[in-house]
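Milestone M4 deliverable, item 7.
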Amino acid sequence: MLDKIDAPSFNEEDLPELTDLYDAILTMKNPRELNMFFADLCSVNELHSFLGRWKIVRRIEQGKSYEDIINEMSKPDNPGASSSDSIPGAVCCSDYEHHIGRVKGKPRNDTKISSATISRVKRCYQKTEGGYRTALKRLEEMAENKKETEE
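Output delivered:
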């Protein structure tokens, strides 16, 4: 079980089950397993929302402005490119049938990103001890370790 978590948005009686959910996520061993788990747990649109926020984080990390982020993310998807191309550890595609043998709804690829979403993500990103920073730091460490082992 995880350390006691601070989740003020949840009722005290929900914390054990929230912790259990986090523990379940931590049992996944690779992006494929995570994809299967999240495909079962979330709707396709919820997964697209998660991915949209992560794309925003990556662009903020690159120093891009709100306007640049909105312009980039409002473009129609490039059918020849994988959304995981620039995101280390991402699954290879959004073809859920390919990953789990069934489709749970249709993805909403044409959703526009709002400035409110970018603002929220940026506020969370700016927390030096926040989850985005922790994830980005660990991805960077993984990339460095991988590079060192390849040399």
